[in-house]
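Might you be able to review the protein record set out just below?
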Amino acid sequence: MGMVRLLCLCLALTACASPSPRFMGAERSDVGVDGMRFAVFRRGSEVEVFRLGPGAIPRQRDVFTNAITAITQVTGCDVRPKSMTGDAALVRASLDCPAA
């Protein structure tokens, strides 16, 4: 019975950083910022960012601040003002990229 619970826990934790259907097939980039780890999925001018790792749930403001840094590092783009939504686990945002 313990092995089944462990397997369920592993599957649940793995699913936590799976992108939503809209981001399926998007490239995943993992990045660390100020002690937090993130999985960043980008599709065009949109990103979906998961905070990875166990532990205490940080303040949403800290997650958003670090997620912005992670997004910028991974994409080279800025986060479009007022586009961020989410919580301490999952953040979505629109990108403002310089013209190539």
